[in-house]
Design brief:
350 residues; mainly beta; 5-stranded antiparallel beta sheet
Length: 350
């Protein structure tokens, strides 16, 4: 069992992280739920100002999310009045593509999300912030205006590294590892999954120390130069071009595909019926966007305190019941709850 899975297992079993720093020998990681803020065709990172953007996203976090979010004028902390995340000082926004089911008759239904193991809310995304687990390497929290992107919505073949992956979940859940590693795959599962489909998006852990963003939203960050991909948070060395260690951000979503497991609804040829909102049946185009919005030095405090779980003495938090009240209306009015003849925006992608 990998160190991340071990940390989670101990957290659940023993309740570590509930208001005090993690004991010696147990890797620290913030792990908390962000409920749905809105399901929306906006993308202020890749398509700023475009209404609508080319494809649908699920968005969580602070309620100042909008189509533009110009970092020179938009202050997520000052502009937001609530957050859909557990920690009330986190007004960051996180968004991913949306998974759909395509029935044999050609109609589509958005796949809902399940709250993750030990967490609550109305689905959405589980967020991780993981400092280097050796406990000695300094980690620098993100600066105001920081943004980054993992994945490529136009990808038509496997990426070089499995930074975005899927897992067919068993009924009782699976914590054999929490990052992209076997049995994860860059493709969507080909068979019905009794516990739903897990999607993981893992962000880089090294920063150039200068730029809070770059035109491609990727060049200012990098992955460690050594070690296997699934040990990025293990303190591997950063490249000289990106010498500053930053927290490893990871987005984990459990898509509840179980209502669609009747194979009589699946295509007659037996092919898998799930489609990302990017109009992708393979699975390569899932992606994650991140806009930093933690209040003051709250994230740095949490990293220094090495909190684990979704309760931390140095952070303010709210209940799941409170977090699900933080929502915003759609800017682009799409039907995202019923059966539809096409995925919203699909006509822009065909």
């Amino acid at each position: 069992m990998q160190w991340k899975a071990l940390a989670l297992a101990l957290l659940v079993e023993h309740g570590f992280g509930q208001g005090f720093p993690v004991p010696d020998g147990i890797p620290a990681m913030l792990r908390f739920q962000c409920s749905q803020l809105v399901i929306e065709r906006l993308d202020p990172l890749v398509s700023p100002g475009s209404i609508p953007s080319p494809h649908l996203h699920q968005i969580v976090g602070g309620n100042s999310f909008n189509a533009t979010m110009d970092p020179s004028t938009h202050d997520l902390v000052k502009s937001s009045t609530c957050t859909s995340c557990t920690f009330t000082e986190d007004f960051s926004n996180y968004w991913t593509a949306v998974l759909y089911f395509r029935a044999r008759n050609g109609t589509y239904k958005r796949v809902p999300q399940l709250p993750n193991l030990g967490l609550g809310g109305n689905g959405g995304v589980t967020i991780y912030y993981i400092p280097p687990h050796d406990g000695t390497t300094n980690v620098t929290a993100f600066k105001p205006g920081f943004r980054m992107l993992v994945g490529d919505a136009a990808l038509s073949e496997p990426g070089q590294d499995p930074k975005v992956c899927h897992r067919c979940m068993p009924e009782e859940g699976d914590n054999s590892n929490l990052n992209c590693a076997a049995p994860d795959s860059q493709t969507l599962p080909a068979e019905p999954c009794v516990g739903g489909i897990r999607s993981v998006i893992t962000f880089p852990t090294c920063w150039d120390g200068v730029n809070t963003d770059t035109p491609d939203h990727k060049s200012h960050v990098a992955y460690p130069t050594e070690g296997t991909f699934d040990s990025n948070a293990d303190g591997g060395p950063c490249p000289e071009t990106h010498p500053v260690k930053i927290p490893q951000v990871m987005l984990e979503t459990i898509w509840d595909t179980t209502p669609f497991n009747d194979e009589e609804l699946w295509p007659e040829d037996g092919s898998q019926p799930f489609v990302w909102s990017t109009n992708d049946r393979d699975g390569y185009t899932q992606h994650g966007d991140y806009v930093f919005g933690w209040k003051d030095d709250s994230l740095q405090r949490a990293m220094d305190y090495r909190c684990t779980g979704d309760v931390c003495d140095v952070l303010e938090h709210q209940t799941f019941e409170e977090s699900i009240k933080c929502t915003i209306p759609q800017t682009v009015e799409d039907d995202v709850d019923g059966w539809v003849t096409h995925i919203p925006g699909q006509e822009m992608l065909d």
